[in-house]
Write a structure and sequence with these properties.
Layout: H1 3-7, H2 20-23, H3 30-33, E1 77-79, E2 87-89, E3 108-110, E4 124-128, E5 134-136, H4 138-141, E6 147-154, H5 172-176, E7 179-188, H6 189-196, E8 204-209, E9 216-220, H7 221-227, E10 229-234, E11 237-238, E12 248-250, E13 263-269, E14 284-285, E15 291-292, E16 301-306, E17 317-326, E18 332-338, E19 346-347, E20 349-350, E21 360-368, E22 373-381, H8 390-394, E23 409-412, E24 418-421
Parallel strand pairs: 4-13
Antiparallel strand pairs: 1-2, 2-3, 4-5, 6-7, 7-10, 8-9, 8-13, 10-11, 10-12, 14-15, 16-17, 17-21, 18-19, 18-22, 20-21, 22-23, 23-24
Bound molecules: ligand MTE and molybdenum atom (MO).
The ligand Nc1nc2c(c(=O)[nH]1)N[C@H]1C(S)=C(S)[C@@H](COP(=O)(O)O)O[C@H]1N2 is lined by residues 106-111, 153, 155, 209, 211, 213, 215, 242-244, 256-257, 259-262.
């Protein structure tokens, strides 16, 4: 038996194939097995297609996606009754690939809409327990050293729908779409703090936004020294208004709420301010009566984006399973996939870019026999943290809402349709 043939033997229950199939560039024996194209006379080259008979459209100052790709929209969008700007819009994860979220599809979470900030009038104030209070405008910030890194941003309310007692009939985006990844660029916050000179009593930083909600969060200075940014750029362009223009706090790997947008004030303090959004909200009440506050790093998580609800399989055969994994603690070390509801697992192939506190794209080959199947993924990060199954993630947290990172299961029925189930 050749090496390629051996790759086609299932390595876990219900048809999961060896990840070597995706790690290799050539697919000698796999070619006919993976056959998904058209055969016979329909595969012969036709006459010139209509769009080949005349010159195409003119150039344009701003690019747009193909008009045929109607699914590339933030959806679903949900807002508080009586408002249009207080709520969330979600990244359509199931229609994307790779690890970068196009800026126009980055999820949004606003507590009082998107302010229209004039960058010439906006200031960032750095004050409190510092030797020299400072104010910066956008032009001043551009003169400081800058860095850029590809990292995720996740709302800690993401995936909370999986805590519902019965599985909701929703898409991957509806359940998990409050995560996106971008190349974030800006000034390391340590640079600004050094300039202001933090007094020895300074231990926390209270960050306020310039929106009508005046979002306010307390950040330990240790995070600031580690990797906090005053972000000015997202995917190479100035931040978009929805994501914090002209400047936002960006705290890699930490719950999205703490990455205060439209950043206006940074006050060095000796203790946390205990603001509404770090006490009443973004805290988790445990069954033992203790409320967990300041749960900052987002736990290790993964989800299969394809197949998933709305993306149906068309007849038995070999399919690609693909998804994203991430951890607020560092790099993803391993992702495993099950096609039999967690009875057996096979290791997925990871795409080339495995970056800390970033999305990692994983893939696996799966031979669907046309019968029922339950697809699941579970990730492990470089610190050894393993994504818990749903029951473990919910244990002792009947009333908790935030920070859910349990395993997602998609059931595939005989028609090839997927749905959210509890395995
Ligand atoms: N000033 C301000 N900052 C904010 C918010 C807000 O409403 N106002 N929302 C927070 C929440 S809950 C999240 S999850 C992230 C969302 O960032 P995004 O809209 O760029 O995805 O911003 C955080 N920063
Ligand atoms: Mo959030």
């Amino acid at each position: 038996m050749s090496q390629s043939d051996s790759d086609l033997i299932p390595v876990a229950g219900n048809g999961l194939l060896h990840r070597r199939l995706f790690l290799k560039t050539g697919l000698a024996a796999g070619t006919t097995l993976l056959l998904a194209g058209t055969t016979g006379s329909a595969a012969e080259k036709p006459q010139r297609d209509p769009w080949m008979r005349m010159p195409g459209a003119p150039m344009s100052p701003i690019g747009e996606p193909s008009g045929y790709e109607q699914n590339l929209v933030r959806a679903p969008i949900g807002s508080q009754p009586g408002t249009a700007g207080t709520g969330v819009s979600r990244t359509p994860l199931q229609y994307l690939d790779g690890i970068i979220t196009p800026s126009r599809l980055h999820f949004e979470r606003h507590h009082a809409g998107i302010p229209d900030i004039d960058p010439d009038l906006h200031r960032l104030y750095l004050h409190g327990l510092v030797e020299r209070p400072l104010a910066f405008d956008l032009a001043a910030l551009h003169r400081y050293p800058q860095v850029s890194r590809i990292q995720f941003l996740e709302c800690s309310g993401n995936s909370a729908a999986l805590a519902a007692p019965r599985p909701v009939a929703e898409t991957c985006a509806a359940i998990h779409g409050l995560i996106s990844a971008s190349e974030w660029g800006g000034v390391p916050l340590t640079v600004l703090l050094e300039e202001a000179g933090v007094k020895p009593e300074g231990k926390w930083l209270v960050a306020d936004g310039a929106d009508a909600a005046v979002m306010s969060r307390s950040i330990p200075l240790s995070k600031v020294m580690d990797d906090a940014l005053v972000a000015l750029h997202q995917n190479g362009e100035p931040l978009r208004p929805a994501n914090g223009y002209p400047m936002r706090l960006f705290l890699p790997g930490w719950e999205g709420n703490a990455s205060v947008k439209w950043l206006r004030s940074l006050k060095v303090t000796d203790q946390p301010a205990m603001t509404r959004d770090e006490t009443a909200k973004y805290s988790d009440l445990r069954d033992d009566g203790v409320a967990e506050l300041f749960t900052f790093p987002m736990g290790v998580k993964s989800v299969i984006t394809s197949p998933s609800p709305g993306l149906s399989l068309h007849g038995p055969g070999v399919y690609q399973i693909s998804g994203i994994a991430w951890s607020g603690q560092g790099r993803i070390r391993r992702v495993e996939i099950s096609a039999d509801g967690g009875a057996s697992w096979a290791e997925a192939a990871l795409d080339e870019h495995v970056l800390p506190k970033c999305l990692t794209r994983f893939r696996a080959a799966w031979r669907w026999n046309g019968g029922p199947a339950v697809l699941m993924s579970r990730a492990e990060d470089e610190t050894g943290s393993l994504q818990p199954d749903r029951d473990a993630a919910l244990r002792g947290r009947t009333h908790a809402f935030y920070h859910f990172n349990g395993v997602q299961a998609w059931q595939i029925d005989e028609t090839g349709a997927s749905s959210n189930v509890y395995a």
